[in-house]
Specification:
heterodimer, A: alpha/beta, Rossmann fold, globular, B: Rossmann fold, FAD/NAD(P)-binding domain, Alpha-Beta Plaits, 5 domains, 5-stranded parallel beta sheet, 18 helices, 28% helix
């Protein structure tokens, strides 16, 4: 059976580079993690997450620069606020909030990227595919 | 018109070719609507590959290009240039990363191929929604405003002026030179500070392309990088800079005497004065708050004494407007007022002084002509230096106090060979290549270092001062004639006002906030506005000068007369028809790039300031803001491709 997909929104400056470093180091993580590059985690609209679910994703990762390291100073903090609100909404819609994970991966943190990706894949595996009625 | 998309999947030799079934993907996408052609290539980034791409764009009359290859961080720019050379707007190319984020992390070829296919599909989905972006350039002003005439400001002025730039130097005090001009000797070279900076001061004052505004303040700044308009308030000096020759005949007859802030309150000055002997420009100023005439009394003593008719009580403040391309803030810092820490007795006990006061006592142009004297006129037989005054309260190490206190201890050892000298410290901070040896040297000279860890308390003790240190049970007391405090370096009192005028942010400690602590320690988040020297954080002279040079270099390389300034192409754009004027975006923008069009009641993005983060786009409740190259539609199309 096809594994449920996980869409990862990666900020251009830290997390996207972190994912590239994971590649350089040939660190494995499940192929159902698919990435979308955005300039900043602050660009991620809650609607993007809902859209990913509607299009068939079972999990969404949003990765930005570590707090204090945002290339645009504060974008990751904005993302944190939005995503925590979104999670509350998801719960009310009957979608497990664990299907969305906001985390921080720095440009040099290939290992961390692979770890977060693997953990997320495990979480979604545990929850199973998202069934939207 | 239907788009003609060309899809090119790079094998990257075996890197992608062995891990992903590239040919299967190429076959799969061929039939998709809009895809005019799909091909694989062994190495698209090679000269051969780039030529291939160009000939494909031209030959196939492509309107969009999708490249599936390595990370865009490697060759996106190169591929964009190839598109441009083939006549296609470079922003009409969509890259997707099937190497670092697919082939290299997915050992199973079937899974890697499936993932790569979904990434390519996402890029194909996105491609028709791409829009051409024109790279914009703006005309710039290459002149520069420097605020603050201390060592950092002087260095910035001279670096810029030497390359022919017009520089406007605004200094709030009546003279330039900053704190350094008031020191006798500076570490680590132990050279005479006024001698060291005199040539710089002279050059700044005499250079044709530097306009110096002393006794002046920045009142307003408008515009952005490349095109600022600034208003400078030149406060009335009441003494003509042109007519005055600096003879000083006006001081003596002035009947007013007030404490001289430039001697840290250790001397008196008149209401018409120069801050200290040798201050430049050598033109006095009338202190309006203390002058009898400005208090309504009939006094013309200075005017009558002036042989050159240089004094004019009718002088008015002037507001001068200048156009500049960049602003360098070099407003320096000050020392924490130790009165806030009553345990040291400062302000209450005689002979408890700050390090700056000792600098003035030691200075040959100071109140005692360089003699270090107690209040009773006698030389001290013992001095206690107290380091780290206010460090705990400020929660940062100022980094310069250990070394300047060591310097002062060394000078005192030479000046007062028989005096007993103590240094009460918490941690010794002597990090640079020349500094440790000065610490070793004063230890060799018999200066006693006592680790007190911030426990020092000073009290009066039969005409002397008792310095108690250590905790109560084991507390010890040393009796001295003079206590010299090394207070924390803190932002100067007017930094808040200046930050407000420029709309630039300050850090938790109140200093100007740098854009990046390591990579851009001299720039603020506001493009074209730099903060150098101690206004950005405590610094010694060498560091302040280095930072000023870095900022000046950045200005010289980015603002070139006659050359245009390239703007960030991927910026945010507001749709006026959709904007409700809620101002959410204005509050969120980290670069103050969004303002309100008062007439229309909508938000406007300044393309010269926007850096394209998209935070405003995500926050706009009306969906009125678009991020170029990362539009909502483009991202949603990409999500559709990868989510399946």
């Amino acid at each position: 059976m096809k594994e449920p997909t996980i869409v990862g929104f990666l900020c251009n400056w830290c997390s996207y580079e972190g994912a590239d470093r994971a590649g350089d180091a040939r660190l494995e993580y499940p192929a159902n993690i698919r990435t979308v590059r955005v300039m900043c985690s602050g660009r991620v609209e809650p609607e993007f997450v809902l859209h990913a679910f509607r299009e068939g994703a079972s999990g969404v990762l949003i990765l930005g620069c570590h707090p204090g390291d945002c290339h645009y100073k504060m974008g990751n903090y904005k993302a944190r606020r939005r995503i925590s609100l979104l999670k509350k909404t998801l719960e009310q819609l009957g979608i497990e909030p664990e299907r969305v994970r906001l985390d921080w991966v720095a440009a040099g943190e290939g290992e961390r990227f692979a770890k977060v990706a693997n953990e997320m894949a495990d979480t979604i595996k545990g929850l199973g595919p998202l069934e939207l009625s | 018109m239907a788009e003609r998309i060309g899809v090119y999947v790079c094998k990257c030799g075996p890197n992608i070719g062995d891990k992903v079934d590239v040919d299967a993907i190429v076959d799969d996408v061929k039939g998709i609507e809009g895809v005019a052609t799909a091909k694989s290539h062994n190495l698209l980034c090679s000269a051969d590959g780039l030529e291939f791409l160009k000939s494909e764009i031209e030959g196939e009359k492509l309107t969009r290009v999708v490249v599936a290859a390595c990370t865009p961080k490697m060759y996106e720019q190169k591929l964009m240039r190839a598109c441009e050379e083939a006549g296609l707007n470079p922003f009409l190319m969509q890259m997707t990363n099937i190497r670092e984020q697919c082939a290299w992390v997915t050992p199973d070829k079937a899974l890697a191929t499936r993932k790569a296919r979904s990434l390519v599909m996402a890029a194909i989905n996105r491609a028709p929604l791409l829009e051409p972006i024109e790279r914009k350039e703006i005309e710039v002003q290459a002149d520069v405003l420097v605020v603050g005439g201390g060592v950092a400001g002087l260095e910035a002025c001279l670096s810029l002026a030497q390359k022919g730039r017009k520089v406007y130097l605004v200094e709030k005090s009546p003279c330039i030179g900053g704190l350094a001009a008031r020191f006798e000797e500076v570490y680590p070279t132990m050279e005479c500070a006024p001698c060291m900076i005199a040539p710089e001061l002279q050059e700044v004052l005499q250079k044709e392309n530097i306009e110096v505004f002393t006794h002046s303040e920045v009142e307003e700044t408008l515009g952005s990088f490349g095109n600022f308009s600034v208003k400078i308030r030149r406060k009335a000096r009441y003494v003509s800079e042109e007519a005055c020759i600096g003879c000083g005949a006006c001081f003596e007859p002035c009947p007013v005497e007030v404490s001289n802030e430039y001697d840290e309150g250790l001397s008196k000055r008149k209401a018409i004065y120069v801050p200290f002997a040798g201050a430049l420009p050598n033109v006095p100023v009338i202190d309006k708050d203390n002058c009898k005439r400005f208090k309504g009394e009939e006094c013309r003593a200075c005017e009558q004494a002036c042989p050159f008719g240089a004094i004019s009580f009718d002088d008015k403040d002037e507001v001068i407007e200048r156009k500049v391309g960049a602003i360098i803030l070099a407003t320096g810092a000050t020392l924490l007022d130790p009165k806030a820490l009553p345990q040291y007795g400062y302000g209450k006990l005689d002979n408890v002084v700050t390090a700056l006061q000792l600098e003035r006592l030691n200075a040959s142009n100071g109140p005692t002509g360089g003699k270090v004297l107690l209040k009773n006129g006698k030389e001290p037989k013992s001095i206690a230096f107290v380091f780290c005054v206010g460090r705990k309260e400020k929660e940062y190490c100022s980094g310069i106090c250990c070394m300047y206190s060591i310097k002062l201890a060394h000078i005192m050892r030479e000046k007062l060979p028989d005096a007993k000298l103590y240094c009460f410290y918490s941690d010794i901070c002597v990090p640079k290549k020349e500094h440790q040896q000065w610490y070793d040297r004063v230890v060799d000279q018999g200066v006693e270092f006592i680790r007190s860890n911030g426990t020092v308390a000073v009290t009066a003790d039969k005409g002397k001062l008792a310095v108690k240190h250590g905790t109560d049970s084991s507390g010890k007391t040393v009796s001295v004639d003079m206590v010299v405090l090394a207070p924390a370096v803190e932002p100067s009192s007017d930094i808040e006002k200046l930050a407000g005028i420029l709309d630039t942010s300050r850090d938790d400690h109140g200093f100007f906030c740098e854009e990046h602590a390591l990579m851009k320690p001299f720039a603020t988040a506001l493009e074209g506005v730099f903060a150098v020297g101690s206004c950005q954080g405590p610094k010694d002279i060498g560091d302040a000068v280095a930072q000023a040079g870095a900022a000046a270099g950045r200005v010289l390389s980015r603002l070139v007369p006659g050359e245009k300034l390239a703007l960030e192409p991927m910026v945010a754009v507001v749709d006026e028809d959709l904007c409700s004027g809620c101002k959410t975006c204005i509050l969120l923008c980290p670069y103050s790039a969004i303002t309100r069009d008062k007439e229309k009641g909508t938000s406007v993005v300044d393309e010269a300031l926007c850096r394209g983060c998209g935070t405003c786009v995500a926050a706009c409740p009306s969906g009125a803001i678009t991020a170029k190259q990362f539009t909502r539609e483009q991202i949603l199309a990409e999500i559709k491709g990868v989510a399946k």
